[in-house]
Amino acid sequence: MLKGNILTTDGWINGTVSVENGRVIALEGHIADPLANDDPYILPGFIDLHVHGGGGRDIMEGGDAADTVARQHARHGTTSLLATTMTAPRDELMQVVAGLGEQAKRCAAGSARVLGVHLEGPYINPGKLGAQPDAAAVAVRDEVLKYLELAPIRVVTIAPEISGHLDIISEMASRGVRVQLGHSLGTYDDAVNALKHGARGFTHLFNAMSPLHHRDPGMVGAALAHAEYAELIPDLLHVHPGAIRAAMRAIPRLYVVTDSTSAAGMPDGEYRLGSQHLTKCMGGVRLADGTLAGSTLTMDQALRNLVSLGIPLADVSNRLSRFPADYLGLEDRGRIARGAWADLVVLDREHALTATYVEGESIVEYA
């Protein structure tokens, strides 16, 4: 049983949450302003839908790398995540995805639950690679279906302007995959058309996509005008606080991701992102040419960053937990409610993480 200021689906209560067999079985308490007392905050565990690495390991390594990554992020309040791939040659990517399919069948002790895979590439525009390796490919139906056989592909990032990709978007959407637009030089009209074909979101909004101009609104303009969901990296390096505020006002269910690399939780130095070499320095990671290459962000720091901008804690919590769960159609994660998985985080009054529970299991080791 945990006691404190609990953010439930109906708002804040001061009381207790009881857990049995990994799920919430009871909530007791009274409606209360969490600022009116000194009790800790109890929030839904964080759900990160864009994770490349952490703890010195990269998802593209295969093997037990995903275990290390999931363990590292659990120490920072992430209770479930999507293992996110990089653009790579077909055979290499197939092998990595197959391994992640096995990983998603279990949850190692002390780790976040790997819900499945975010396939970020190879179906992107070679003119908007960002930090992705130069191995972009045009999506082919049989190849895409093979990936879906190998692992639970929950999210795919795709450039909609590439010939044939609208049909692929429709195919994947019909199979329950969340299709996101990103790493794209597409126009506003390309994005709107893709949304009509079943695309649901935008990958790391503002980054690696055609920008907003008042006479050429681009992918960003389409997202701000039409999207219900989009992911954003609030490390305060990728996106200016003013742009964050604009996106939050425009996109009802804008949600937080880390886009974290193997350098997350590690000292400054040299790391890898797929086949790319990175340097971590001054809180960020970059390629040799200075291009931002993912992040070192963790979800607990993302929360503190957004709170520091004056955004209410309950709103921030929704963007770290409930909205990503809703995006994937998960009704029993990302919220504190009877019958939901007991994925919980406890924060002190300064918003520092003091405890994490993954499906009722206490994570006792913190970075």
Automatic annotation (TrEMBL):
Listed EC numbers: 3.5.1.25
Cofactor binding, note field: Binds 1 divalent metal cation per subunit.
InterPro entries in alphabetical order: Amidohydro-rel, GlcNAc_6-P_deAcase, Metal-dep_hydrolase_composite, Metal_Hydrolase
GO biological process: N-acetylglucosamine catabolic process
Keywords: Carbohydrate metabolism, Hydrolase, Metal-binding
Tagged with keyword Hydrolase: yes
GO molecular function annotation: metal ion binding; N-acetylglucosamine-6-phosphate deacetylase activity
Residue ranges occupied by any Amidohydrolase-related domain in the UniProt entry: 41-351
Needed co-factor(s): a divalent metal cation
Active site positions, chain numbering: D259
Family, similarity comment: Belongs to the metallo-dependent hydrolases superfamily. NagA family.
Name under which the protein is recorded: N-acetylglucosamine-6-phosphate deacetylase
